[in-house]
Amino acid sequence: MNHLPMSVRVPIETDNPSIQREESLCIKCGQCREICSSYIGVHNTYRLEDTNNKAVCINCGQCANVCPVSSITETYEYPDVRKAIADPDKIVIFSTSPSVRIALGEEFAMPDGSFVQGKMVALLRKLGGDYVLDTNFAADLTVVEEASELIERITKQQAPLPQFTSCCPSWVKYAETYHPDLLPHLSSSKSPIGMQGPTIKTYFAKQMNLDPSKIVNVAVTPCTAKKFEIRREEMNAASGYLGLNNVRDMDYVITTRELAKWAKEEDIDFISLEDSDYDRLMGEASGAGVIFGNTGGVMEAALRTAYEYITKEAVPEDFLNLQPVRGLEAVKEATVTIADLQLKVAVIYGTKAATEFINQWKETNQSYHFIEVMTCPGGCIGGGGQPKGTLFKGD
Ligand code: SF4
User: Fold this and answer.
1) What is the ipTM of this complex?
2) Model pTM?
């Protein structure tokens, strides 16, 4: 494995918390520009003279994921987490996203898709975490909020339809940059990590009798854009609730790749670790959040919840049968019946595909109720901080 000194890596832009690069390693293969242009739909859509010489970036990290020589990587935050663990005055709490537990094993030469939840929790305890929680807890909160908001939009008509999902921070930034007219359509629900952070610093701290000002919240994710999301100005709900200044909801984000890199630096034999369980409080969830990692997962979880809220009945087996839209493989559509409602829904991955869909939707004036957009290929499972594909297994 390549152990680069941290100091030679610099942020891709001074205010970009997600991506860093080491210029001298670049072999000019152009794969980063290619994915940013052909799949993300950002590179080549603007002129630097119009942006004050600043590159537009939606923080998805797909450039890092395809870089064959790790010239571009996620910005490493695990050294800061390690420092927090060494500080006896800090309480370090890890929260893990669904896609990490099925990808982390690949970094240790386990078969692709190995389910390593127990070993992952054991690793985080061995690295010194005081508590290890499941972000699926907050994914349940996101599902309830998204479903309730959708029902309100349909029944009270106080906000426009379709409702777009908002839990992918790259999609949110993309919409802010390229489709600002759509912002009233974005769900007001925070992402699971956006809810997990303040819930830990308020509810969990109270239940466990912890001083919230000592808590260091660390999200372990497939996603480089979460490094951007947690630093958004509005992600400080706990601060107001607790009446404390400078308390961020989530303090650090480390990716699946970063976690593996950290474990290897500590010479931890991941494969031999005995399984460990999450802490009980905020370590258990309904299971709805597990499907968040795949494209269509947020949509399915929210619609199932909406179905139960509206009909007070269990969801039928064949409830959601999404069909690809011809010519647009990254877009799937369905019409879903809930009681006397016929809901037209669409699921999209890839922001360039989202723009194509939006343009078509505006041209044809079709009516939709709910649209999920995730930036990465196949959803978070293909996140910018996940193990690289076989071709590009590097760093
Ligand atoms: Fe992050 Fe998932 Fe969005 Fe990719 S699809 S940017 S991993 S939230």
Assistant:
1) 0.92
2) 0.92
